[in-house]
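Quick one, tokens below. Sequence please?
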């Protein structure tokens, strides 16, 4: 884990299993909580997250996923673990 915020988010999520609750306690957005969890190997339950990660792992680019699911590119990125080289 990179920093104290990451540790706090992961620990709170393990206890509550509630992304929105963790966001409120840590005073950050749901998107930021999701990113921290994904970047630490924890996939918060969400059918959208699961679908996007499966498509990405199958080799689809972020733009291809966005077009297929009819969502914005930023929505796709928010459901993927942080990587400097996201396609």
């Amino acid at each position: 884990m990179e920093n104290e915020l990451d540790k706090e988010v992961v620990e709170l999520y393990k206890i509550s299993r509630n992304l929105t609750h963790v966001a409120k306690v840590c005073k950050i957005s749901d998107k930021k909580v999701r990113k921290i969890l994904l970047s630490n190997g924890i996939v918060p339950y969400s059918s959208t997250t699961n679908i996007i990660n499966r498509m990405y792992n199958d080799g689809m680019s972020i733009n291809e996923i966005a077009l297929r699911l009819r969502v914005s590119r930023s929505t796709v990125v928010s459901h993927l673990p942080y990587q400097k080289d996201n396609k």
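The chain is about 65% helix and 0% strand. The helical segments are 4-16, 19-26, 30-39, 47-57, 62-69, 73-78.
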